[in-house]
Amino acid sequence: KQGERRTFQAESLDKIDPIWTHLVLYLFTQEDDEMIYVYEAHPWYLLGRPATERRMYESCTIQGKKIRMLLGNKTFLDQYGYKLHKTTPCEAVITDKPPFPKEGYTFWLCGEYIIECYYHELISQYFSSFFETTKSIDDFDLKTFSGIFHIKVPAELKVSRNKKKAEEMRKSIKKLFERPKGTRKTPYHPLIK
């Protein structure tokens, strides 16, 4: 019901991932809103767990949902992840001036439901190091990157049903997907002029 909150915890990002998937697929099917908005400071999951992440997107679209993904940084790996998102059912936008935290934060939003994850500081630092130092795909060590998901530090999902907060978040992200008047009909994103 409105205003309700719950927290789900696990010992690592790897262990919280199935909980996250279940929550998205269960809660968001309860909503009439067909649009899911996602914010990721970096495309952690699509780079580190691509098969799992693609299945999540496909499951959402099979249930009649559309996904709009906002990436909040423009490093080499962020740009690479952005290109990968173009091969998924997601409509993706990338910016280096997001309206949300630039490190260690992600959310999924549909209707009044919000699923948020703030990464543990250690995890955030490890990921940040990859995104700051990787300058080509040849420099990207997928095995080490994927290993970060298994580091045993607390992972926490905060789930809420908050109409006002959801509307504010949706408004902040939605405007990045709207194309300015007088431009071509392709979806707007900061890289296309």
Characterization of the model:
Strands 1-7-6-5-2-3-4 form a 7-stranded mixed beta sheet, sandwiched between helices. The protein has 7 helices and 7 strands, in the order βαβααβαβββααβα. It has helices at about 15-30, 45-50, 50-60, 75-85, 120-135, 140-145, 165-175; strands spanning about 5-10, 35-40, 65-70, 90-95, 105-110, 115-120, 155-160. The chain has about 190 residues and is α/β, with parallel strands linked by helices. Helix content is about 40%, strand content about 20%. The chain starts with a strand and ends in a 19-residue tail after the last helix. The longest helix is centred in the N-terminal third of the chain and has 17 residues, at about 15-30.
Overall structural class, as computed from helix and strand content, comes to alpha/beta
Low-confidence stretches: 183-193
- Shape by Cα distribution: globular
Q: What order do the strands of the largest sheet run in, or round the barrel if closed?
A: 1-7-6-5-2-3-4
How many distinct helices?
7
Strand content: 15-25%
- Give the topology string: H per helix, E per strand: EHEHHEHEEEHHEH
Q: How many distinct beta strands?
A: 7
Q: Outline the biggest β-sheet.
A: 7 strands, mixed
The radius of gyration is 16 Å
* End-to-end Cα distance: 43 Å
- Helical content, roughly? 25-40%
Compute the average pLDDT.
91
Topology:
Elements: E1 5-10, H1 13-29, E2 35-40, H2 44-48, H3 50-62, E3 66-71, H4 76-85, E4 90-94, E5 105-110, E6 113-118, H5 121-133, H6 142-147, E7 155-161, H7 163-174
Parallel strand pairs: 2-3, 3-4
Antiparallel strand pairs: 1-7, 2-5, 5-6, 6-7
